[in-house]
């Protein structure tokens, strides 16, 4: 595979969790560290691409030469992703976007009730960022998603590939030891219309380089 395979191309990548505010001091979120998405951004930059990295709240240094946009909630990530997608050739959704957000964000800290009654939290669905970009009729980048699954990994990932109309999906067994959320390593299966390719456990930095080579080869063939 050629080096600098993405020279002259623009790549946008989402990474990390989103944080959905409940009140001024509380939020809903998940265990994504951003490591996978940041590693992809670094690998795409090394492959010659102009990279925009849309990052949820994470504790990671920005890879050299990468343009980083920090966001907090899913709606803010969606807006930044849509703007980046207008200009990019390849879009990769590596973020763990919260599927739901509180229906209302309380202006003041929510108080405990004096009795011991249950508290109920009303949630509304967040927009599906990667599916929105894949559904475009115009200015549609080559669109890649991840699938974080705990069972029937390939079956569920194939379902998401079709339902979200993605060009490629990277299936992640997040229940496996030393893999998935927050780990330095990951093991994935890349799936597209042509078939699938398993990439065994490796450091996310190494895996990212393999993934970028695979994505570049497919995206540029289109
Ligand atoms: O950040 P790390 O700690 O390194 O962990 C990496 C990771 C496990 C988070 C990453 O490899 C991964 O699998 N990311 C996707 C996590 C996820 O939310 O998967 P999902 O199966 O729920 O979503 C499927 C796809 O739709 C993903 O591309 C996701 O970004 C996208 N999505 C989901 C919901 C939503 N509202 N908008 C989206 O764009």
From TrEMBL:
<keyword id="KW-0456">Lyase</keyword>
<feature type="binding site">
    <location>
        <position position="160"/>
    </location>
    <ligand>
        <name>CTP</name>
    </ligand>
</feature>
<dbReference type="GO" id="GO:0004633">
    <property type="term" value="F:phosphopantothenoylcysteine decarboxylase activity"/>
</dbReference>
<keyword id="KW-0511">Multifunctional enzyme</keyword>
<feature type="binding site">
    <location>
        <position position="109"/>
    </location>
    <ligand>
        <name>CTP</name>
    </ligand>
</feature>
<protein>
    <recommendedName>
        <fullName>Coenzyme A biosynthesis bifunctional protein CoaBC</fullName>
        <ecNumber>4.1.1.36</ecNumber>
        <ecNumber>6.3.2.5</ecNumber>
    </recommendedName>
</protein>
<dbReference type="GO" id="GO:0010181">
    <property type="term" value="F:FMN binding"/>
</dbReference>
<dbReference type="GO" id="GO:0015937">
    <property type="term" value="P:coenzyme A biosynthetic process"/>
</dbReference>
<feature type="region of interest" description="Phosphopantothenate--cysteine ligase">
    <location>
        <begin position="11"/>
        <end position="222"/>
    </location>
</feature>
<keyword id="KW-0288">FMN</keyword>
<keyword id="KW-0285">Flavoprotein</keyword>
<comment type="similarity">
    <text>In the N-terminal section; belongs to the HFCD (homo-oligomeric flavin containing Cys decarboxylase) superfamily.</text>
</comment>
<comment type="function">
    <text>Catalyzes two sequential steps in the biosynthesis of coenzyme A. In the first step cysteine is conjugated to 4'-phosphopantothenate to form 4-phosphopantothenoylcysteine. In the second step the latter compound is decarboxylated to form 4'-phosphopantotheine.</text>
</comment>
<keyword id="KW-0460">Magnesium</keyword>
<dbReference type="GO" id="GO:0071513">
    <property type="term" value="C:phosphopantothenoylcysteine decarboxylase complex"/>
</dbReference>
<comment type="function">
    <text>Catalyzes two steps in the biosynthesis of coenzyme A. In the first step cysteine is conjugated to 4'-phosphopantothenate to form 4-phosphopantothenoylcysteine, in the latter compound is decarboxylated to form 4'-phosphopantotheine.</text>
</comment>
<keyword id="KW-0479">Metal-binding</keyword>
<feature type="binding site">
    <location>
        <position position="164"/>
    </location>
    <ligand>
        <name>CTP</name>
    </ligand>
</feature>
<comment type="similarity">
    <text>In the C-terminal section; belongs to the PPC synthetase family.</text>
</comment>
<feature type="domain" description="DNA/pantothenate metabolism flavoprotein C-terminal">
    <location>
        <begin position="6"/>
        <end position="217"/>
    </location>
</feature>
<feature type="binding site">
    <location>
        <position position="146"/>
    </location>
    <ligand>
        <name>CTP</name>
    </ligand>
</feature>
<comment type="pathway">
    <text>Cofactor biosynthesis; coenzyme A biosynthesis; CoA from (R)-pantothenate: step 3/5.</text>
</comment>
<comment type="pathway">
    <text>Cofactor biosynthesis; coenzyme A biosynthesis; CoA from (R)-pantothenate: step 2/5.</text>
</comment>
<dbReference type="GO" id="GO:0046872">
    <property type="term" value="F:metal ion binding"/>
</dbReference>
<dbReference type="GO" id="GO:0004632">
    <property type="term" value="F:phosphopantothenate--cysteine ligase activity"/>
</dbReference>
<keyword id="KW-0210">Decarboxylase</keyword>
<dbReference type="GO" id="GO:0015941">
    <property type="term" value="P:pantothenate catabolic process"/>
</dbReference>
<feature type="binding site">
    <location>
        <position position="99"/>
    </location>
    <ligand>
        <name>CTP</name>
    </ligand>
</feature>
<feature type="binding site">
    <location>
        <begin position="127"/>
        <end position="130"/>
    </location>
    <ligand>
        <name>CTP</name>
    </ligand>
</feature>
<keyword id="KW-0436">Ligase</keyword>
């Amino acid at each position: 595979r050629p080096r600098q395979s993405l020279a002259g191309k623009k790549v946008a990548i989402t990474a990390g969790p989103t944080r959905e505010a409940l009140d001024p001091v509380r939020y809903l979120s998940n265990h994504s560290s951003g490591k996978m998405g940041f590693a992809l951004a670094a690998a795409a930059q090394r492959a010659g691409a102009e990279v925009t990295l849309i990052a949820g709240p994470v504790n990671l240094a920005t890879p050299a030469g990468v343009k980083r946009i920090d966001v907090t909630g899913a709606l803010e990530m969606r807006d930044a992703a849509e703007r980046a997608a207008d200009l990019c050739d390849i879009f990769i959704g590596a973020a763990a976007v919260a599927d739901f957000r509180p229906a209302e964000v309380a202006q003041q800290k929510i108080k405990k009730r004096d009795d011991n009654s249950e508290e109920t939290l009303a949630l509304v669905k967040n927009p599906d960022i990667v599916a929105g970009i894949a559904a475009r009729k115009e200015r549609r980048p080559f669109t890649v998603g991840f699938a974080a699954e705990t069972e029937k990994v390939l079956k569920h990932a194939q379902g998401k590939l079709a339902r979200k109309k993605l060009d490629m999906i990277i299936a992640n067994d997040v229940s496996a030891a030393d893999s998935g959320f927050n780990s330095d390593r990951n093991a994935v299966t890349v799936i597209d219309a042509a078939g699938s390719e398993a990439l065994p456990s490796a450091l996310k930095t190494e895996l990212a380089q393999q993934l970028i080579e695979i994505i570049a080869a497919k995206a540029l063939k289109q």
